[in-house]
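Progress against Task 2.4 (sequence-to-structure conversion) is shown through the following example record, which the project officer requested during the mid-term review.
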Amino acid sequence: MSLELALALALLVLAAGAALWWSSERQRRQLGLPRGRAVYQDRPEDRVPVLRPRTLPLRGRPDLLIAEGEAIIPVEVKTGRTPREPYPGHVLQLLAYCLLVEEHHGVRPPHGLIRYPEREFRIAYDARRERELRALVATIAREKARAAEQHRSHAAPPRCAACGFRAHCHERLIG
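Structure tokens generated for the chain above:
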């Protein structure tokens, strides 16, 4: 092969690579995806694992995990109306994903991203927000335990006789 032909072939391969890169960057911008390499994506056709932490009763599947250097950044993609500020429930969901990522991958994300159709919010994941998340999960767990522990709310045998839960109730007034 002649030097000119090898050079032309190398330039062709380089041009094709540049065109593919430009096309993928354009598609990334159109989809509103952040820079970085996707390491996880929750799609119906994939069977991605549910992330579970060791320290809290949580589990979840972030929409996307992006590798930015050593960090793994959770991205939550929302549809519908774009708010001026992210909804508090969406922020808590993202913070939970940050905790899941940290415990699952062993790397603490410095932040997470909430992507609405017209705007993206960068939410810091710091010690204060982690404490708030852990306190909220503990409160929910206590309330759930309390709600599971139902007591008889009366002292009327006729009500017990008519109750559909009488056979399972350890506080029933009649057999």
